[in-house]
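Entry 14. Two folds queued back to back today. First construct below, sequence then structure tokens.
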Amino acid sequence: MARTYALKALWLILFVSLPVAAQTSGELRRQYRLTSAVESFEVRPGIIATVSYGANGQAFQVLIRHQRSSTSVSAQDEMPYKLVAELLEEFAPAAKRGRRCRSPFEFQSERNHYVTTTYENVSIDSVEHDTELDSATASSVQINWEKWYCPAEAGDNGAAK
């Protein structure tokens, strides 16, 4: 009887301790159809940009982040901020952003700094870390191409208030 309980307990421990794995690429491809509405590019070693396209074929959203794995530690998921600035200039050049509409919205919690900056043609959301240090990093940046109403203020592009 004790042996029966021991065997049941052993099976229960083995069953519960088995790792649960997410679907593989092949499984997802069998279940869902592929679309050209989203693509991912390795823009630097280990850095992925996932681009979403509208019906007109134009990119409307770009998410830039470190390629994650199931064994990632959060600090390894961060990118040097200088690299993020380079990538922002590649995907949303300052000349195409338009005029900045307002001061950035910022929220800080410990070393995490959440920033949203809105321009006439694009908004940029970023999660930055240790921004006061030269070794500042970012874990993600999302670029959303969309038109924003930016009220003209005195001194902005010569427009009257």
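Second construct, same run, same settings:
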Amino acid sequence: MQSRTLFGEAAENDLRQRWRPAQCLERRRDRYLRGGDHISFNEQGFAAVRLTEFRENYTRQHQNVRTENGIEYGDLPKFVNFDYVANIARVNAATLASLAAAPPPPRNVRLETKQLVNDSMLIWDAPADGRAVGYEVLWRATSSADWEHSQAAGNEAKAMIPVSKDNVIFAVQAVDESGHCSLPIVPVPER
């Protein structure tokens, strides 16, 4: 029995390709009815994400190895796309190398909320190891997942940004003499 499609197989394949994002950040804990290895790290306070293919094959994942009604189930080497796994390893290695080269982030990052003004004052303490030669203030719309704007803050541990704190999310990152940037740290309000 052939599967029926609403627009025809070629049209639906084209739709799938167009709506399949190269990268997709889901803003919920995990997929429904299962959980990834990242959850235990998140629960212990570590930043962690799960990388997976966009369109999962449920006969392969989280299955005991078996054959049922002529269908092979389970995580078996013959079903692994080793080129895909190698690319994931490359992304992980590049990310770790970038983090290892970066200075530690600024400490005790605060956003002044003492008065109703449209400018925003951020204050922080320098990282303890002394590698930071400057800082960068980042901000984004509250609805955005990506940092959209940045402003160099020099080597002082404070910056006045001409943007209302009510309309954006701020962060501060340390920069070393080679231009490596630390992880951005979102400030806490300070009255």
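Quick look at the second one. Residues 8 and 14 are 10 Å apart (CA to CA). The mean pLDDT is 85.
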